Amino acid sequence: MVPTLPSSQGEAPEAPPDLHPVPSAGSFGHPELCQRPCLHFLVGRNCLAGDACNYCHLPHSPGPKLDKRQRRIIEEMPKAHFLPLALELLADKARAMELQGTEALMGILENEVQSEDAPAAAAPAGVSGRPPLGLMRCLRAMGFRNLTNMAARKCAEGTKIRIRETVQALRANVSQGQAGARVTS
After folding, report:
1. Banded pLDDT at 163 (limits 50, 70, 90)
2. Relative to the CA of 54, which of 8, 43, 95, 178 has its CA 20 to 30 Å away?
3. Nearest-angstrom CA–CA distance, 185 and 41
4. Are the C-beta atoms of 126 and 111 separated by less than 8 Å?
C-alpha cells in the first residue's frame, strides 16, 4: 500500500506502509553471507522490490571499519602474505558458523596463493610477520562475505569471478536451508 496525501475534499490519508522487514532475495545467508543492506530499509522506507530485492532487508549491526592506516597496510601487503591470512580467518569463521560447502572457495584461494610465481615479497614497512593487533581484530570481526571480498581484491580477474560465483552458490545452499527451516518450523 502506497501512502497518499489527503485529498482536497478533506478525506483522511491512507495508513503509512508497514515497515517490518520483508525477507528478500538479498537477505539469504544473513548476516554472514547476505548482500549489503537495502538502502530503503536503512532510511526507514519500504522497498518497492519487496522480496525480489537483491539487497538485505534484515537489520545489520555496524561492522568493523578499517582506518586509513589499516587499509594502506592491506593494500600494500603482497598477495602471498594476505591470502594465507584470509584463508586462515575464513576457515575459522566457517567452522564457527558450521558453514558447509566452503571447500570450493578455500580451494580457489589456495590455488591463487600457489599460483604466485614470484617469491614472497617483503612485508610492508611497519609490519613484522603478522599484521598489527588492531588490524587483526578488525579482520576477525568482519563478516565472512566481507573478508572473502577483501581476499578477492588481491586475486586475478578470473579468480575474482570464480570467487563471486562460489559465494553465490554458498548463499543458494544457505537459502535452501533457511527456506526449509521456515517451512518445517
Report:
1. very high
2. 95
3. 26
4. no
